[in-house]
Amino acid sequence: METGQSFAPILIILSIAVAVLYLHLTGGSGKTRLYLAALLTGVALLLLVPSFDSSLPQWWSDYLPTPRIQLGLDLQGGTHLLLGVKLDDAVKSQLSRRGDDLKTELTQNKIPFDSIGLNSDGALMVRLKSADERDAFLNLIQQSAPDLTISSVSSPGAPTYALNFKPEQIAETKRNAMDQAVETIRNRIDQLGVRETTVMREGSDEILVQLPGIQDPERAKELIGKTAVLEFKLVDDSHSVADALKNGPPPGDEILYGPPRPGGRTPYLVEKPTLMTGDTVTDARVRPGGRLEGPYVTVDLNQRGAQIFDAITGQNVGRRLAIILDNTVYSAPVIKERIPGGHVQITGQFSFEEAHDLAIVLRSGSLPAPVEIEEERTVGPSLGRDSIRQGELSFVVGAAAVLIFMAVYYSGAGILADYGLTLNILLLVCVMAALQATLTLPGIAGIVLTLGMSVDANVLVNERMREELRNGKTPREAVKIGYERAWSAIRDSNISTFVAGLILFQFGTGPVKGFAVTLCVGVLTGLFSCVVVTRAWYDYLIASRKLKTISV
After folding, report:
1. Which of 124, 246, 275, 502 has the fewest beta carbons under 10 Å from its own?
2. Quick check: pTM over 0.85?
């Protein structure tokens, strides 16, 4: 749905409600407020039609907003995933990037070294050419890498050192990796088109993902789990791939494979050094290709990436450049000329779905560490239907009991209160549909609780009016004093409930947040329907001199 259309329903409701409230505060005509309240009721019913009837004609969607109530995982079924993030790998990856930076700094400072790389324990090992560079190397580390610890490793020949992050730096790296992983997974799911999902952190290294109504959970899991490390490396055409497969790759090379195809995976012999990574990607889009090539993905780079890519293509004209995602070579085109501007094309005989998923992971960025599915549960739609029926039954029984009690116990005033209660629930559900909020079982509980809060407000008003009539006040005075004296108690109880709802929303998890949203919206609609709308009826009778008695 377009943004403007999604905001239209809530703007319509707010405009009418604000008009009614303004007239109430300024002493406007009770008759006008009644007309506006009736209009508000009609608009609410109109906006709720799409939520209960999915087979609407086309003209309805063309001319009228069509917001729908979104059902949560417990009501419509879906997939529940608990992902474990390998944070130690994030630390190793960060340390490996520091090793690449260190190579550049050592070269710039003319400090010869033999090798720099991670060992099996995840430490960054640096082996110098000779002991003559020891002091210069230690001074460089002290100045440029204060977040690293350094220790000497006994080894024959030239001095060797092990570098590691300090404990506080490791903790910060893991914390940042978790935040980035949550945001990246959320972005990928949003672009997949799954609505009203839950993506939240669980514990120190787990992420909870809930996908209501997901139709293709396997595709979603594959998309979520992709690390999406994009790399650009040169293909080594000077050696035979067949020889490398038989005898092992030459020093400085590695064997990578293309994506699975009917004819098997194509092997590539590529040079190990990474010329550029995907952190320079700003956008990725699917483009339709020719009949033979199929769709491809265009990638836009930022200014730094454009400069790097310009230099890479300018220095390697005639060679093949491998575009690698998660150690899979998606394409290896020949560089025919220098390519300025930072625009890259990735081709590879994709299906449209494959190209679309590739564009999603490139746009959302790479995960800072691999993730694995630790727990998976599927909630069937039949369970969701049972939950809906039970929730509807509890609401209908509770609402009917309240409405009957109010009508019997307070007579005419009770029937007016019933209209306020009905309008309250109608507005609450309509606002949730307009906001496209998620309705869950806790949300249904919040609606029932809202009904109870509204009843409490109406009971306070009616009891105050009944008390004033017993004290000999006229109906006009009883209405005025009844609303004024009940207002303080209504205000305090609703403010405390609203604040409690805000706290639940801020610090609660998914189901608790659904309850909090319903509760907070219900408090506002309840106050409006009880204090503003029902009062309009009495003001109308008083203004037209028809209020002779109050049936309460």
Report:
1. 246
2. no
